[in-house]
Amino acid sequence: MTFLEVLESIGKFAVVTGLLAWLTRSIVTQLLARDLEKYKLELTAAHSAEVERLKADLRAAAFEHETRFSQLHEERGKVIAELYKQLATVDTAFKTMLPTLSWGRKLESEQVTKASLLMS
């Protein structure tokens, strides 16, 4: 084997190895690109599903709070109405009793004055 034959063999080996490496790299790149696109689609679908689930959960929580607070406001309204009714009753009772109480004080003061005159 001469030097040129060895050099030629090494050259052929290098060219074939280079072509095989390039071909392998191309195939792997295409496979990875396909897998990447598939993964992107799966990720997009999962993201959309999760966003929709979170929106549904948020709507459910908002409805629950809305219902709870509307019931709370309704209950507060009933309590305020009952309290106002009781205050109106007390106000009417005071207005009815107040003239009687002040008249009674006048009688007491007149009786005290008469009693003090009689004792003197």
What is the radius of gyration?
Answer: 50 Å
Unreliable runs, pLDDT <50, ≥5 residues?
none
In quaternary terms, these chains amount to single chain
Give the helix/strand class. Answer: mainly alpha
- Our measurement of the CA-to-CA distance between the termini, rounded to an integer number of angstroms, reads 163 Å
Helical fraction equals over 70%
Q: Total number of helical segments?
A: 1
Averaged pLDDT, please? 84
Beta-strand percent range: under 5%
- Total count of strands: 0
Shape type: rod-shaped
**What string gives the helices and strands in order?**
H
Largest sheet: none
Outline the structure in words.
The chain is an all-alpha fold and 120 residues long. Helix content is 98%, strand content 0%. The protein contains 1 helix and no strands.
